[in-house]
């Protein structure tokens, strides 16, 4: 009897190429959507650094190569985001962009929803301001 093959979320997503696509779409929505303008303003004009860091973080977070840790050490997400004032509106803007980006990627519905919920929990953890 053959053992079932267990895929990491990184593999289920589609690996490196699809993760790059997700990150590009995410930041594309951040650039395009007027309702995301406040979080876009928190980023540098050139998004290439943010794209690279998000890709590297998500790679390891999803069970793929741990690129962020190899380059920057432990993610310490909350500490790294503390210089930015993040409340419920900023969390929701981030999640809006991520939801739209995930919807652009061909994923099965239950996996997409589980991934979104995990990202939503992480985004909620970034809140550092009472509104």
From TrEMBL:
Keywords: Heme, Iron, Metal-binding, Transport. Heme binds at residue 124. InterPro entries: GlbO/GLB3-like, Globin-like_sf, Globin/Proto, Hemoglobin_trunc. It comes from the Bacteria. One of its GO terms (molecular function) is heme binding. CDD domains: TrHb2_PhHbO-like_O. Belongs to the truncated hemoglobin family. Group II subfamily. This is Protozoan/cyanobacterial globin family protein. It comes from Methylococcus capsulatus (strain ATCC 33009 / NCIMB 11132 / Bath). The lineage of its organism: Bacteria, Pseudomonadati, Pseudomonadota, Gammaproteobacteria, Methylococcales.
